[in-house]
Amino acid sequence: MNDPALAIPYLVLWIAMMRALLVRAQILPATCNRCGRPYERRELGETVCSCERA
User: Fold this and answer.
1) Sequence-distant contacts of 11-16: CB under 8 A, at least 24 apart
2) Residue 14 and residue 20 in contact, taking contact as beta carbons nearer than 8 Å
């Protein structure tokens, strides 16, 4: 039961859930799935997503 390969999926799930909670609380900006850039600027001159939204 102490298989480290079993812990990796749970760690990935935990990281994804924490990121979603921080985005929902508006602590972290929402980012594009394709390029990883934020959708809106937080600071002047910051690069933002230019992918086409469908």
Assistant:
1) none
2) no
